[in-house]
Amino acid sequence: MNTPSHMLIGAAIFARPLCIATLGAALAGGLAPDLPMFAMVLWSTRVSGIPEHEVFSTLFFSESWQAVFAVDHSFFVWGSLLGLALWRRRLILRAFAGAGLLHALADFLTHHDDARRQLWPVSDWVFRSPVSYWNPQFYGEAFGIFEVALVVGLTSFLCWRLERWRDRALVLAVAAPLLAPVLLTGSLHGLHGM
Fold it and tell me: Among 47, 154, 146, 33, which Cα is nearest to 100's?
């Protein structure tokens, strides 16, 4: 699933009560599992000068990169953090950790070739979902349509629930990278890999 979708799902479910603090925490939690990947891709392409096609065809699937993805998408890491938040009754941490756990769960259900080891550190087993959010061989085009509709729905729901324009602007800014290409071109092409 694309990162903006993760962020909006986390916000819609875990920003409770809906205020700027829980909204920001949930959006950050939805983003957090992908931050190491973004950093590694940027470092490889911009600093090390490795061609983008090599990063996504070779480095992305290397053991060292997959080891990082196992940690940042681990059900146990995010579940433990959520458990701690619930135990300590910390709303902000609950919003952050809950959104991070939902991100890991959504990726579990929507990644085939690029699936993660989400049972780390207990197991290195990888579930290869029959659905891929991007690969047309595994319903990627159909899922892309669903994902855009989901983002429109979540964005509308959050904007409807939020009272302040600045909070609504934050939600719209998160949705924009996914919705703008569709609105401008009428195509899902270019959405994959956010």
Answer: 33
What's the pLDDT tens digit per position in 54-75?
Answer: 999 999 999 999 999 999 999 9
C-alpha distances (whole Å) from 55 to each of 23, 45, 65 are: 33, 8, 10
For residue 47, is pLDDT > 80? yes
Structural contact between residues 143 and 132, judged by C-beta atoms closer than 8 angstroms: yes
> In angstroms, rounded to a whole number, what is the distance separating the alpha carbons of residues 2 and 110?
10
Nearest to 121 by CA among 59, 60, 67, 83: 67
Distance between CA atoms of residues 139 and 23, nearest Å? 31
Q: The whole model's pTM is what?
A: 0.93
Interhelix angle for 91-110 vs 3-14, to 10°? 140
Structure token pair of residue 15: 């920003």
Query: Coil, strand, or helix at residue 51?
Result: coil
